[in-house]
Amino acid sequence: MFKILYKLFRHSFKGIMRYEPSIYVGDVHALFVADDTKHFFPVRDISNKELWENIVLGDLTIDYIPGEHTNCLKEPNVHDVAKILE
User: Fold this and answer.
1) Are 63 and 34 in contact (CB under 8 A)?
2) pTM value?
3) Which of 23, 32, 46, 61 makes the best surface tag, with the fewest CB within 10 Å?
């Protein structure tokens, strides 16, 4: 099982490292976690905000949601996220 999980992780990791975002034509409402100090995948030398500003050709709305990637959709943070999505 460990070998299978490692292969899955390695495949995902390579995909993230090789991904090059393309231009998006349209409006985007992006949700960023308030605490982005805990990264599962490697972080490039650009902020999320800069990345989205460079690829969105439309209105970009950014909201920061409480928590970090592993708990932003769990209690109690999920209630704040639900309010944004209403």
Assistant:
1) no
2) 0.71
3) 23
